[in-house]
Amino acid sequence: MKIKFHYIIIALLFAATGCKKDNYDAPSVKLSGHLVYQGEQVNVEFNQVPFQLYQPGFGLSGPINGTFDQDGGYSVLTFAGNYKFTISANQGPFLWKEVSAGKRDTLAINLTGNQTVDIEVMPFYLVRQPVFTKAGTNVNATFNIAKIVTDANAKNIERVTLYVNKTQFVSGSGDYNIAQTSLDGAALGSLTGISMSVAVPTIVPTQNYVFARVGIKIAGVEDMVFSPVAKVTF
Amino acid sequence: MKKISIILMCAGLLITGSCRKDSDFLEVPPKAVVDANVAFSDPNLVLSILGDLYNRYLDFSGLDNGWASFVDFSEAFPSENGSSYFVQRTGWGYGEWGTWDYTYIRELNLFIQRATASTALTDAEKNQFVAEGRFLRASYYFEMVKRMGGVPLITEPLDYDFSGNVAVLQKPRNKESEIYDFVISEAEAIKVLFNSGINDKSRASKGAALAMEARAALYAASIAKYGVTTPQVTLTGGEVGIPSSMATGYYTKALAAAQEIITGGGYSLYKQLPDLSDNYANLFLDKNSSESIFVEDFKANGGKTHGFTTNNQPFSISDEGLDAGRLNPSLNLVEAYEMLNNTYAPIATKTAGGDPIYYTDQLDAFAGRDARLAGTVLLPNGLFKGKRTEVFAGYQLADGSVIASGDATQTRDVPGLGTAIQVVGKDGIVNGGEYRTQTGFYVRKYLDPTVGSGRRGRGSDVNFIRYRYAEVLLNAAEASFELGDAATAAGYINQVRARAGFTTPLTVGQITFDRIVHERRVELVFEGHTLFDMKRWRLANVVWDGNQMTVADLVSNIGDARKRNTQPFGLWPYKYFNPGNPNSGKWIFKETKPASVTGANRFQLGNYYSQIGDGIISANPKIVRQPNQ
């Protein structure tokens, strides 16, 4: 068969012109970090504490919305540029600086390459020295509570709750716990050496470990502050 | 020569023919667009414009919004696998329920402006049309303030002058209380303008304006009073949140508007049928109901129908094969209906000793309750279109084992009874068996018994009632209770309860906030009130707190306004089979959480007011963001 070269040339020309870039670069700069208080991680509920990242200077402005992980971690994959980081009013179990009443302060971030920015916040309370142990089919927890905000903004503890779940996601929401027990804030007394215990129900299919953590519900604050998640093996 | 004269004549004709002015030739009025001056020259044309504006009235739940607009908030379970997200999600997005239709507002403003300016209409016609336009505009502002809080209040059509400067068009949000004030003052202003000769409940009337006023004032009052429990849900500019000092004023207005309807509105509670459940169900079916004040009307074979009956009819009685049974009321709701002696009690399934209770007829389990239960919910073995539903989840044997199958057509052997027996009901219950009930209940409210109403082609033309007299009575009861007059409140609430079969009236001492919350729930369920009631009482974040529910939670504290209601449950009947036992062949019931219910409703503080889109805020920087968002 006679090869028709002009067809091949036309095909090659099409292929070559198709090589032109027809798209934008994907975002590639990673901004990540944790919620911290003096270097100590602030643990919150998964997907419940939102943050907003604004990039001013592009006409219409809208935030990049994200939420913090259980350990207070966040990460955003975006482009290099100047950003402003903020958290909406009444979100999170901590105080966020306000420039005036109702005006939330922002944190300027100049993003040139991958960068870790820890977000310094002032939590109302923190759970310290949590220890989770097994006792029969129960999970026992002992911990101290540190009251961080003691000035006029101080708030009371509504309740303290010990949550247990079969997966690493542990909180009060939906199927993030299989057992929980609460202590009323008024019944707490001393904030040190608090102990709680909760019975773990039968898990189907069987597994010989659970995840546990304690959370503090602060009066008048929607989000709880937690201890880190601990794995308890039976 | 002859030829030349013919040519000249032709040329002359051509030249004179082209002498028409350019503008005459080019400016042809479009035939598809009716000019405003023409449109407002004839009352029939105005009415057709108004018809379009009525059609765009926004309802939360509506028969033409689809069955799914009724299903949320754990009052029902969605028996359609594609809609399982209602019970699998753990909350709502901040943008949920939002509305921001300023196109509608502009067209209403234009309508009001043009109808007012029209010279061809008589004063009486003009008053009626303008009043209807203002009613629709106030209704939409009311709908916006319920969902978004304070919004920019635009009462004149805005025009852009193409100067490049849009600042004059960028209006900031008004205070939440200002929008409520606008709705109330509009209702007061237009109530005298309506032509009382028009007796069409799908059009606005004096009664509709007053009913809107009563409801709006009540909402504003309760936000003022109960907003103090959620101080985070406010904005410093008052765009969200109403000062508590305004509560009494609003309650007084709500009561006055409601009483104006009660004393002189010409409406009454629907009492036509001897069976009180049938009577309650019929109030939604009877187009001449004396109870309805403002409705969305439908007409079969006339172009405006809805598929509510098609979507929700019992499976075995369906007119449309597999199209049926999507909206399944939950046991949570069913248990809320009181016993006829004014006490709360769960449906009895076990004796004090823990043994199951055996019922000869499935309906016996629901006997002696509020007549509205059987009027709202089609109970197992309930009657629809002359047939009874067949609802059971399997055979229970003496040793406690259950024989069930994946479908009524899949037979099983039941030892002692025979082989190839049908072991589940034709109308359910099987986990994941969509279009059949998965809670044990079908919906009866709005379900149309007319022949052919369940067919997709014909559809149903049952009305959707937006305002009805029973709600006005409950609004009056709530307002007078909050004003400290429990005796008047008892008088109003007992009228509604007497119609539901309660022979012992509630005493003045028995009227509490929880009673009022409860009464609204059972009377007005599936009418689009649940979300807004829970929001205005600031109870939404309490009852939908994101925690899972157990059966023990479900059956305790019934009637408590703060009772958790995060997951819909079902009540599954089983046929007991134990030859020789006197209970063999009877029914037992088990409270069951349908398998697809994995999420639990969580209402965050940021859900109280729906998000205003970033596009809107970018285009108008004067708009402040919602609290917590």
What does the secondary structure layout of this molecule look like, with pairings?
The complex is a heterodimer of chains A (234) and B (629).
Chain A: H1 5-17, E1 29-37, E2 40-41, E3 50-54, E4 64-67, E5 73-78, E6 81-86, E7 94-95, E8 98-100, E9 103-104, E10 107-111, E11 115-116, E12 119-120, E13 122-123, E14 125-135, E15 138-147, E16 157-165, E17 179-184, E18 194-199, E19 209-218, E20 225-226, E21 230-233
Parallel strand pairs in A: 1-11, 1-12
Antiparallel strand pairs in A: 1-2, 1-5, 3-4, 3-6, 6-10, 7-13, 8-9, 14-15, 15-18, 16-17, 16-19, 19-20, 19-21
Chain B: H1 2-17, H2 22-26, H3 36-39, H4 43-55, E1 76-78, H5 85-88, H6 102-117, H7 123-148, H8 176-190, H9 206-226, H10 247-264, H11 276-283, E2 292-296, H12 308-312, E3 327-329, H13 331-336, H14 371-376, E4 377-378, E5 383-384, E6 387-388, E7 395-397, E8 402-403, E9 411-414, E10 418-422, E11 442-443, E12 464-468, H15 469-482, H16 486-499, H17 513-524, H18 530-536, H19 540-543, H20 551-555, E13 570-577, E14 587-592, H21 614-619
Parallel strand pairs in B: 7-13
Antiparallel strand pairs in B: 1-3, 2-12, 4-11, 5-6, 7-8, 9-10, 13-14
Q: How would you characterize this protein structure?
A:
Helices cover 6% and strands 46% of the residues of chain A. Chain A has 234 residues and is mainly beta. Chain A has 2 domains: 94 residues, Carboxypeptidase-like, regulatory domain (Immunoglobulin-like); 110 residues, Immunoglobulin-like. Chain B is α+β, with helices and mostly antiparallel strands. Chain B has 2 domains: 212 residues, Serine Threonine Protein Phosphatase 5, Tetratricopeptide repeat (Alpha Horseshoe); 291 residues, Serine Threonine Protein Phosphatase 5, Tetratricopeptide repeat. In chain B, strands 8-7-13-14 form a 4-stranded mixed sheet, with no helix packed on it. Chain B has a two-stranded antiparallel ribbon with strand order 1-3. A two-stranded antiparallel sheet of chain B has the order 2-12. In chain B, a hairpin with a 3-residue loop joins strand 9 and strand 10. The radius of gyration of chain B is 29 Å and the shape is globular. The relative contact order of chain B is 0.14. At the A-B interface, loops of A face helix 21 of B. Chain B: Keywords: Cell outer membrane, Membrane, Signal. Chain B: It comes from Mucilaginibacter psychrotolerans. Chain B: It is found in: Cell outer membrane.
